[in-house]
């Protein structure tokens, strides 16, 4: 659930392809006509402490592009309306954990930690 209670995060997919893990979420609306700002930007502190995958006891931060920008949505605002199927979506790319890891937890700001995310290999 989001901090403001407007929506619930659901994992669409968690795919490990080579050395990259891509996680996609969608937000199911729980409120009517509510706009919720999950995060506005990604500071260095937020990058290091608020966006990560936990696999066993190892923390994996978002991958970055050649300009050191994290490979995720630069900001996240959702619009909840119970008449809609989706209030918003999110995606992120992380270093892939070893092949023997079959599930992970995901932490992003403004959303409850998502545990026991099953990984699919491609």
TrEMBL record:
It comes from the Bacteria. This is Uncharacterized protein. It comes from Ensifer canadensis.
């Amino acid at each position: 659930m989001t901090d403001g209670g407007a929506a619930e995060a659901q994992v669409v997919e968690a795919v490990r392809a080579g050395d990259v893990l891509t996680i996609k979420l969608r937000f199911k609306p729980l409120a009517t006509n509510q706009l919720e700002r999950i995060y506005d930007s990604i500071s260095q502190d937020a990058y290091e402490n608020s966006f990560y995958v936990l696999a066993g006891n190892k923390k994996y931060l978002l991958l970055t592009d050649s300009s050191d920008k994290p490979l995720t949505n630069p900001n996240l605002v959702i619009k909840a309306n119970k008449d809609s199927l989706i209030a918003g979506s999110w995606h992120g790319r992380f270093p892939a954990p070893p092949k023997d890891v079959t599930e992970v937890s995901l932490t992003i700001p403004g959303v409850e930690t998502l545990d026991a995310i099953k990984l699919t290999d491609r």
